[in-house]
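Final report, closing paragraph on structural work. Over the funding period we assembled a curated collection of sequence-structure pairs, and we close with a single example.
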Amino acid sequence: NLDAGSEVSIADEDDSAPVVDVETRVSIVARVWSIDSFPDGVGNTRWAATLVDATGSAQIVAFKQFIPLSAAAVKRGDTIAVLNGEKGEWGGRPQVKCGPGTKVVIVSDADDVPEF
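Its predicted structure, as stored:
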């Protein structure tokens, strides 16, 4: 069922429209295996972390203004949630890129969960 402001119609064969770019967004929860950043999180133009869970590993990466404020507090062993990240890959490995609207939240501290 559609709302009152929406409709669906069958297009004629001669109907055309420009291609629309679609960005696939994802949210994941996983543990931090490693961090690629300066320890104090100051002066970085790139922040990255390798995340692991029962299904495998993926990298989260953020550049310049999209580095989350929580990045300086994230450490190895923390469980974090990456909300509304951009799905992709780099070097054949899964990657989630932080962009506009992406949030990184620490779900549990490394001290609160068993070691790897």
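The mean pLDDT is 88. The chain has no helices and six strands. We thank the funder for supporting this effort.
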